[in-house]
Amino acid sequence: MAETLNLDKPRSARRPAARRSNFELYSWLFMRISGLLLVVLVLGHLFIMNILDGGVHRINFAFVAGRWSSPFWQFWDLAMLWLAMIHGGNGLRTIIDDYARRDSTRFWLKMVLYVAVVVIVLLGTLVIFTFDPNIPAD
Ligand code: HEM
């Protein structure tokens, strides 16, 4: 005669395997890739602005106007702005997560950081694309 096997019910309810997002993996990868791009963008920027052809002494409104008349330099500066802000913002997010002890401190520090990143990225992008070289001198 067949006996039925009776097992106790498991104490905890069955749950589907937790779905973990890969956000931290991609953010880790982004830091490496943006870091490499920033080496080129930032060192190129420093070289042109501070060393080449008299360096900072030749920088004035006309110099900036001349550079931003070229889509190449507009894009260079835009890439530098976006990458440095997202790279720096994501780096600071990690530091806040590591060091902030209270949940509320961590939350508010990150809110300040995110607002600052968004405002600076939007403002910088607006300036690069709406810059007017013909502003009257007076
Ligand atoms: C110029 C070339 C740059 C390279 C090669 C570079 C590379 C990196 C790398 C690989 C990391 C990750 C470190 C880790 O996960 O342990 C990192 C973190 C970080 N980066 Fe950059 N970065 C550069 C520029 C910048 C700039 C311009 C900023 C600021 C706007 C910045 C701010 C940060 C911050 C705040 C962190 C987090 C540091 C930490 O976790 O302790 N970096 N950088």
UniProtKB/TrEMBL annotation:
Membrane topology: Multi-pass membrane protein
Entry cofactors: heme
Record-linked Pfam families: Sdh_cyt (PF01127)
InterPro entries registered for this protein in UniProt: SQR/QFR_C/D (IPR034804), Succ_DH_anchor (IPR014312), SuccDH_FuR_B_TM-su (IPR000701)
GTP-binding listed as a keyword: no
Keyword Transmembrane: yes
GO MF annotations, alphabetized: electron transfer activity; heme binding; metal ion binding
Keywords: Cell inner membrane, Cell membrane, Electron transport, Heme, Iron, Membrane, Metal-binding, Transmembrane, Transmembrane helix, Transport, Tricarboxylic acid cycle
Localisation: Cell inner membrane
GO terms classed as biological process: cytochrome complex assembly; tricarboxylic acid cycle
Transmembrane segments: 29-52, 72-90, 111-131
Top-rank taxon, per record: Bacteria
Cellular compartments per GO CC: plasma membrane
SUPFAM superfamilies assigned: Fumarate reductase respiratory complex transmembrane subunits
Annotated metabolic or biological route of this protein: Carbohydrate metabolism; tricarboxylic acid cycle
Functional description taken from the UniProt entry: Membrane-anchoring subunit of succinate dehydrogenase (SDH).
Name by which UniProt lists this protein: Succinate dehydrogenase hydrophobic membrane anchor subunit
